[in-house]
Amino acid sequence: MAKLKSIRIGNCTVGGPLGSHTGLAVGSIFYDNHSIVEDAFAGKFNEEKAAALIARVNGLAQTYGVQMAFDVIGSDPDAFCRFLDFTADRTDLPLLLNSTEAEVRVAGLEFAAKKGILGRSIFASLNEDTEDSEIEALGRNKPAAVMILASDVGDSTPEGSVAMIRNYFQPILDDIGCEAPIVDLGVMDAPSVGIAMRGIQAVRQEFGYPAGCAFSNCFPQWTGLSSLGKDFVNLSLATAMVCCRMAGGDFLHFGIIEKARPMAHALGSAEVFLGFAAQELDQHRLPDGHALLKMFKLAEAA
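Structure for Tetrahydromethanopterin S-methyltransferase subunit H, as requested:
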């Protein structure tokens, strides 16, 4: 088994032995059709509501003792930079620089360099369609972490993901000087969350890289579940988060930022179990403010 690698992203640490740090819970803001966005291409949005959402996540991370991050999404270079600027000014948590367009991702990376926030930025992400401009930009401006989407449409098995990393991504990572990426295992539908869990384990075992998935991507397709109502959707979403975390998932994308509260509670609960075992059985010193201390108020006893 490869040595487990960890990545420092701002004040957070992602990866390493299971339970030594909490997983990184990620929610999307400024996404397509987000209610706070008035014009995605002009970068117009409701600043009061956006600030309230950011403040809520900041508070949840503190209350539950879990690591959280913002997946900042943009469709236009200038608008994306405005979204990043606004978010970065209101949180110290990690920021994913995320877009479906390469030019927008590159613009976000260059803005992060000018803003001085590369140390808590995650480039999201390198994929099968990665362009030379992105590799060149990453060579000039190194974020704290680079995410790779290791989802091979021709072979969706864990073995396929491992082969894709070795054969396709490794030369790119070497080129940009990235020793350890965050690996995103693709999720196509609800049942395939189980395959992603196996992929997380395979990646950690083969490379030692932090890994995880956006398990939330499949939930809009789960129409039968949606008919039961929001509470049941959130229960299943929380179940997916905890299952992925117990499989070793370091990157846990729960979907829209509005679901941050139940997801922080679910992850905090899981981290109590993982953290206590890591402390008592593996002799890991848990970081200050860990969920084990926050959720059971054991700081004084410790």
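The two ends are 33 Å apart (CA to CA).
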